[in-house]
Amino acid sequence: MCLDAKVMRVIVIQKTLIEHAEKVRQVKTVLEEGGNFSGIYKKVQLKPLKWDDEGEE
After folding, report:
1. pLDDT per position in the chain (57 positions), as tens?
2. DSSP secondary structure string, 25-43?
3. Could you identify which of 4, 35, 44, 48 might form a hypothetical disulfide with 30, taking C-beta atoms 3.0 to 4.6 angstroms apart as the criterion?
4. Is the distance from CB of 35 to CB of 42 less than 8 angstroms?
């Protein structure tokens, strides 16, 4: 893999991590502040997008 491709890959990974971090901050804020949910149920369920190779959670 050439240097330019490696640099681009690192940039894409960093951008993805920043986007995920922002989503986690938003979920944290809603959960901590109670949010403005309608209805009776105020349950949130988080699911992994994929499991690691060893099958551990």
Report:
1. 688 888 888 888 888 888 888 888 888 887 777 766 666 566 777 788 877 766 555
2. HHHHHHHHH-----SS---
3. 35
4. yes
Task: Give pTM, 2 decimals.
Answer: 0.42
Report the chain's terminal Cα–Cα distance, integer Å.
32
Q: Are 31 and 44 in contact (CB under 8 A)?
A: yes
Cβ pair 27, 44 in contact under 8 A? yes
State the Cα–Cα distance between residues 20 and 14, nearest whole angstrom.
10
Cα–Cα distance, 45 to 14 (Å, whole number): 26
